[in-house]
Design brief:
Elements lengths: L4 E3 L2 E4 L4 H11 L6 E6 L7 H7 L7 E5 L6 H7 L2 H4 L4 E4 L4 H12 L6 E4 L10 H39 L19 E4 L5 H12 L12 E5 L3 H6 L6 E4 L20 E4 L14 E5 L6 H8 L5 E2 L6 H12 L4 E4 L16 H8 L10 H4 L5 E4 L5 E4 L1 H14 L6 H4 L1 E4 L10 E2 L1 H9 L20 H26 L6 H10 L8 H4 L8 H6 L2 H28 L1
Parallel strand pairs: 3-4, 3-6, 4-5, 7-8, 7-13, 8-9, 9-10, 10-11, 11-12, 13-16, 16-17
Antiparallel strand pairs: 1-2, 14-15
């Protein structure tokens, strides 16, 4: 086509050499590897052959062509050259919903295939839906940042996650799965430790008197993150369930002074084991699949995995997801602020607040200047319209909340989650005034005394689970021992069997920096047999990991007995 092209009052293609102009745009594109080139309104495919030829030296880059106009998309399907339609590095789609588009990219090229998004406008078609195209590109950027952030977390904490999981497996015979807990249809208050928590906790006595303090007396349930337990203890409020997710030792600071407090807790298998021993109100187990590992499939197939909760990265988000599993009633969130002010970072009496009070002196006042002036901190509007501070990490968790629970999601669980208006970032869900939230909480039936401890449906698994777990541990020890013997020369190397063992014991190497981002790229059987430098390096590091895990399995076996 050598003539121009207009649509809906917009000139999309110039009347003077449109193909040549598109080629010149392609020539001006900065070429880089691991880049997804986002191409809005591809129309007739002008310029894409030139761009693909320039990408020949970047084998991990690709083109994503998106047409949002329902009348123009069929034209692209017809006029795109066959060579473009069949090119493995180019995809043409009309998906215009962010979640579906992100899923499409993962399906076509795999997770963490790209490190950046670059927008390439080959013609004027992008003018028809500029905001939509920019929004889709930004969604893809956030998705890429999330995937790589998860890979970095796995690199740093993956070994700790699996070590904690192996240590916590010994709890399975004695502690029930969180799936055995139910709140029926009672409204549930999910509490984070943000500054806005104070106003809610201060308002409860005016409406409920002393009844709000104890399970069984109040007409609603309370699920809280472990960080806000001191704030509740200070006010004499006993939650129905505390959620424990943190894997690192500083989580114990949240439990200072709480030893023996009669509060039920939900412990993630990857959480710090010591955290589950502080409270005395009963312990329920759940499981967060922080990455895809073969051992999780084996645990599930033997019936050993407790209730699974999707990996959300934040104990506050996990608490909301757990509340959604436990109750069929309305869920109201409070204290999930993902923001702070100059003089308030956490709710009163929490670890962060008390630490700030302890450190106060004439050189370090209560104003949180250090946090306020950190790199990346920005000022933004709160739900109430005032100004609060946030940072990229907090904003990231807020965005995750909206993606998981936002009002745009079409499911019943989302439609019954509300937030309380006030300080903090908008969460993308409907907000209620404090009075409206109180009215919802008052609508619940007062819990019976028998349910006050959590509504347990049945007892812990017991002897049968202990037997399954012992057999499972022995099988894992045999795998690791055989792999070690092959790597040390104590047993003949069967490359086929070694390749299988490496996949089955991927928890040994899933945190390696060069494979955490893309586990499918670990050295394959052919490379192992050839003894390439990368394969030898991989096997040496793998050998170092085996003995510590054999000791962990041995300790777990002895703890069960």
């Amino acid at each position: 086509m050598d003539s121009g092209f207009s649509h809906n009052g917009k000139t999309l293609l110039s009347g003077v050499d449109p193909a040549g102009k598109a080629d010149r745009v392609a020539d001006a594109v900065a070429v880089a590897d691991r880049t997804l080139y986002f191409c809005p309104a591809p129309l007739f495919g002008f310029g894409f052959e030139r761009l693909l030829s320039r990408l020949a030296g970047t084998p991990n880059s690709a083109l994503l062509c998106i047409e949002a106009d329902p009348e123009l998309f069929p034209l692209s399907l017809i006029y795109f050259p066959e060579a473009l339609r069949n090119n493995s590095r180019l995809r043409l789609t009309n998906l215009c919903e962010a979640a579906s588009l992100c899923a499409f990219v993962r399906q076509e090229w795999g997770p963490r295939a790209f490190r950046r998004i670059e927008i390439v406008r080959m013609n004027g078609g992008w003018q028809l839906f500029p905001e939509l195209y920019n929004s889709l590109a930004e969604s893809l950027r956030r998705e890429i940042a999330l995937e790589w952030g998860n890979a970095m977390t796995l690199t740093k904490l993956g070994r700790l996650y699996i070590r904690n999981t192996l240590r916590n497996l010994v709890l399975l015979p004695d502690r029930p799965s969180l799936a055995l807990l139910s709140f029926g249809g009672e409204p549930t208050l999910v509490l984070g430790a943000g500054p806005s928590l104070d106003s809610l906790l201060d308002a409860l006595p005016a409406h409920f008197g002393e009844k709000h303090r104890l399970p069984g007396s109040r007409p609603f349930r309370i699920v809280c993150v472990d960080t806000c337990l001191p704030a509740l203890r200070e006010r004499g409020i006993r939650p129905d369930l505390a959620v424990i997710l943190e894997s690192q030792h500083w989580n114990l600071e949240d439990f200072a002074g709480l030893s023996g407090w009669d509060i039920p807790a939900a412990l993630d298998l990857s959480a710090l084991p010591r955290s589950g021993t502080v409270l005395s109100g009963g312990l329920y187990l759940f499981f967060t699949p922080w990455t895809k590992l073969a051992i999780f499939g084996r645990l599930e197939s033997t019936g050993l995995l407790p209730m699974a909760v999707p990996p959300l990265g934040s104990v506050g988000l996990s608490a909301v997801a757990i509340a959604g599993r436990l109750t069929g009633g309305t869920i109201i969130t409070a204290g999930l602020d993902f923001s702070f002010t100059l003089d308030s970072y956490h709710a009163r009496s929490t670890k962060g607040h008390l630490e700030k009070l302890r450190r106060q002196n004439r050189f370090e006042p209560l104003l949180n200047a250090q946090a306020a002036f950190n790199d990346g901190v920005f000022s933004t509007a709160s739900k109430a319209g005032g100004k609060v501070l946030s940072n990229p990490a907090l904003r990231h968790y807020r965005d995750l909340f909206e993606r998981k629970f936002g009002a745009a999601q079409d499911n019943d669980a989302v439609r019954r989650i509300f937030d309380i208006a006030g300080d903090g970032l908008p969460l993308g869900i409907e907000t209620l005034s404090a009075e409206g939230a109180i009215d919802v909480l008052c609508a619940g039936d007062t819990a019976s005394d028998s349910a006050a401890g959590g509504g347990r449906k049945s007892s812990a698994p017991g002897v049968e689970t202990a037997g399954k777990l012992r057999a499972f541990i022995r099988a894992e020890q045999e795998r690791l021992t055989l792999m070690r013997n092959m790597l040390t020369g104590e047993a003949p190397v069967d490359h086929s069997e070694l390749d299988t063992l490496i996949d089955e014991c991927d928890y040994l190497w899933a945190h390696f920096p060069d494979y955490a981002a893309a586990p499918e790229r670990r050295p394959g059987r052919t490379e192992l047999e050839a003894g390439s430098a990368s394969a030898i390096s991989f096997l040496k590091r793998l050998r170092v990991e085996i003995d510590p895990f054999l000791r962990l399995w041995d300790l777990a076996y002895r703890d069960i007995e």
